[in-house]
User: Which sequence fits this backbone?
């Protein structure tokens, strides 16, 4: 998408607005598939929570993707998008047994991540095969906010509890058809990932009826210049070889599964805002935009550094700005960032706005959630209308006091 395309989206649909480039999503999907072309059976389950607009789900489905879901509502969205139940995996954490039963009733693959529910589910439904989520206790990234494989993590069943898992499986006569791990959000070091995979292979040998091994996700995408990105091609080369060797040892052609969110949609997204005010204080120049953490919370929640481009004045002389929002709360998108000269009314584009951006929006300050646009084959398609005042009050029940 060119700057002109982005400006036309703001002209047509106003700001703030999310726009997703379909061809980038497609390219990432193909790139991942291609990296594992030496494995016979590969299944990619897109992590719906990253960006759950149904048109995006349909696009991914049309490419051949399955869906990874973490709530019954996400399961329903995936079904609504036309994804077959057998191509949906439900990997919740800490949800109720009723929710798991509902998902199982819809025919989706269940992934269980605690011993208590493994035993309850196996006792009640020994005929439904389940996948188990293993915690291999490997730290994939450096940031404890996003590493979920380490010792204190709430995710997965500890690898050290394998004897307990086996006892439950034997006692209930249930079938384990897959094992799964999701170690964290940043694979910086492929060797660390391969090390965790070895642990998964070792646990796989404990089960005779496996159909797939799910390696989760954690593919890192670049946010700013100089960022390390997971070398998918190298990972594909190394893991494929190891996976194929494992299948020989295991004696069966298994499916290699992944469930990427960020990798598929992060870079495809841009968030476009308008600059309301330029405010010069004694030490700082603030650019205040028509948004805040109600629309785009990653910089405040995770300290994510998203690129910011002034698409209205790309050739302007660069100056330092603090880009902040209009929320009555500290909502700093960027501190002291070098950006082409910003004037009131300019449109700024945030990069990497595809994953975990719209899905984390709220109505804080009683603002509307933004519109979403899918850019497909040179055309803008509105895929979610901007909210209106009706949405703000629709569930409120006024009482006369
Ligand atoms: C969130 C999540 C993913 C996707 O992670 P990304 O970093 O976006 O690729 C995959 N699997 C599970 C179980 C998740 O919770």
Assistant:
């Amino acid at each position: 998408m060119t700057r002109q395309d982005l400006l036309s989206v703001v002209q047509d649909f106003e700001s703030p607005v999310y726009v997703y480039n379909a061809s980038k999503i497609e390219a990432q999907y193909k790139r991942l598939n291609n990296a594992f072309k030496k494995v016979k059976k590969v299944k990619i389950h897109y992590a719906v929570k990253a960006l759950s607009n149904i048109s995006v789900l349909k696009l991914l489905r049309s490419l051949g993707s399955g869906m990874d879901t973490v709530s019954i509502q996400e399961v329903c969205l995936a079904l609504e998008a036309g994804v077959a139940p057998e191509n949906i995996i439900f990997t919740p954490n800490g949800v109720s047994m009723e929710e798991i039963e509902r998902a199982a009733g819809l025919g989706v693959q269940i992934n269980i991540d605690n011993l208590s529910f493994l035993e309850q589910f196996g006792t009640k439904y020994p005929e439904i095969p389940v996948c188990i989520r293993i915690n291999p206790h490997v730290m994939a990234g450096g940031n404890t906010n996003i590493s979920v494989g380490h010792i204190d993590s709430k995710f997965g069943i500890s690898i050290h509890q394998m004897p307990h898992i086996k006892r439950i499986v034997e006692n209930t006569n249930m079938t384990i058809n897959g094992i799964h791990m999701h170690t964290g959000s940043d694979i910086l070091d492929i060797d660390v990932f391969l090390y965790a995979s070895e642990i998964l292979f070792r646990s796989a040998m404990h089960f005779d009826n496996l159909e797939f091994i799910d390696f989760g996700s954690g593919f890192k995408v670049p946010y700013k210049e100089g960022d390390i990105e997971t070398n998918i091609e190298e990972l594909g080369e190394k893991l494929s070889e190891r996976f194929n060797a494992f299948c020989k040892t295991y004696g069966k052609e298994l499916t290699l599964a992944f469930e990427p969110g960020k990798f598929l949609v992060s870079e495809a997204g841009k968030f476009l805002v308008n600059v309301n005010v330029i405010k010069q204080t004694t030490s700082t120049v603030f650019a205040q935009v028509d948004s805040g953490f109600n629309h785009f919370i990653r910089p405040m929640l995770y300290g994510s550094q998203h690129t910011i481009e002034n698409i209205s004045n790309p050739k302007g002389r660069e100056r330092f700005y603090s880009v902040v929002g209009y929320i009555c709360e500290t909502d700093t998108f960027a501190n002291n960032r070098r950006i082409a000269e910003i004037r009131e009314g300019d449109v700024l584009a945030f990069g990497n706005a595809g994953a975990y951006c719209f899905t984390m929006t709220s109505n804080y300050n009683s603002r509307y959630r933004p519109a979403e646009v899918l850019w497909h084959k040179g055309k803008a398609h509105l895929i979610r209308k901007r909210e209106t005042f009706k949405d703000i009050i629709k569930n409120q029940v006024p009482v006369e006091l």
Observations:
- Residues 143-147 have pLDDT under 50 and may be disordered.
- The longest strand covers residues 269-280.
